[in-house]
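This follows on from our talk about sequence and fold. Please put the record directly below this note.
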Amino acid sequence: LELYKVQLEEMRRTFGTLLRQLPSKTEIPALIVDISQTGLASGLEIELFKPNPESRREFYAEKPISLRVKGDYHQFGAFASEIAALPRIVTLHNISLTPNSGDSKDMTMTATAKTYRYLEEDEE
């Protein structure tokens, strides 16, 4: 039992160190700009970019951003690749691709991008 307590404490320290790599509250606005700029740089037409209220978890907070963008399949791929390459953690959820009407090869993608930040000690 004592060995498990030691392992648990080590895991908590390691987890705490990893959480510190997440952006702080003051860095979130810059990260939101990075996500928006990534979409534009990928050639996507942004129809909706709506930061939503964050939800708190035990050690961190999630900041969801509702997205609706137009573009072609390759532009969506470039966007997802660039999002994955950002220095901070951003994940894409609930992705839906819908073909646009007519002969256009363009589609509309709706998704939720989530970024995460660690909670300051006074927020926990």
